[in-house]
């Protein structure tokens, strides 16, 4: 894909996979910062992933992929702020996810380092990748176990990579967390996490799990909740953060593309 090297910041993304080992825990509490170069691959367990997605477009600039065999999913959020500069953020986010998916599909080994994957996709797509605002959460027994925190310089200003200057691929947060059979992983762009509080997300995961819904049906339910919240006047994570960091009186959700990827960890 040919992309003008002068195009400004146009992408934020996330990739994750089943950890290489279900042994000692490497990741710790929410917000723990790992060394992005520490990505050695240990012996893998027999865990695998069943995954599906829901996508509710606003400006239609998100992209994603699910590769269940390799145990890897990715989401990318095109930066809408570049729209006024004539930049097609959707073209870039889709290109990045296509490159990442192709690399996963062509990999001869099942041990894939998310950091290496992001670096490769960044290089092949020629320009920019955001490494912090699209996040994920892990649930065990219906309870929130781990919530990755967004990387932001300040409110609503996420880390971004550029052809010249900006943040670096090496700034990407990276770590391992030992999943178990029955765990549920929910990944999404900020269209999800800006509109749905963790407690509400936990509740809908519990309900969908109790109903034995498929990953796709759970993703649809979570996506619909985020969609409704984005259009409501109720308190949202984005409005709460806006008041806290900017002193605004804003309430309600944030209109945006909403991508939700749900993965069930199975044997």
Structure report:
It is a single chain. With 267 residues, the chain is α+β, with helices and mostly antiparallel strands. The chain has one domain: PPM-type phosphatase domain (Phosphatase 2c, domain 1, 4-Layer Sandwich), CATH 3.60.40. The chain has six helices and ten strands. It has helices at 89-106, 114-125, 190-193, 198-210, 215-230, 237-246; strands at 11-17, 48-56, 62-67, 72-78, 135-140, 143-147, 152-154, 157-158, 184-188, 258-266. Strands 2-10-9-5-6 form a five-stranded antiparallel sheet. α1 packs across α2 and α4 packs antiparallel against α5. The radius of gyration is 17 Å and the shape is globular. The chain starts with 10 loop residues before the first strand and ends with a strand.
Give the CATH architecture: 4-Layer Sandwich
* Overall form: globular
Strand numbers in spatial order across the main sheet: 2-10-9-5-6
Percent of residues in beta strands? 15-25%
CA-atom Rg in angstroms: 17 Å
What's the helix count? 6
In terms of per-residue confidence, which ranges show pLDDT below 50 for 5 or more consecutive residues? 1-11, 19-39
Level-1 CATH class name: Alpha Beta
Structural class: alpha+beta
What's the number of extended β-strand segments?
A: 10
What is the H-and-E element order? Answer: EEEEHHEEEEEHHHHE
CATH superfamily: PPM-type phosphatase domain
| Topology-level CATH name | Phosphatase 2c, domain 1
> What level of helicity do the residues show?
25-40%
Q: Largest beta sheet, briefly?
A: 5 strands, antiparallel
Mean pLDDT: 77
- Tally of separate domains: 1
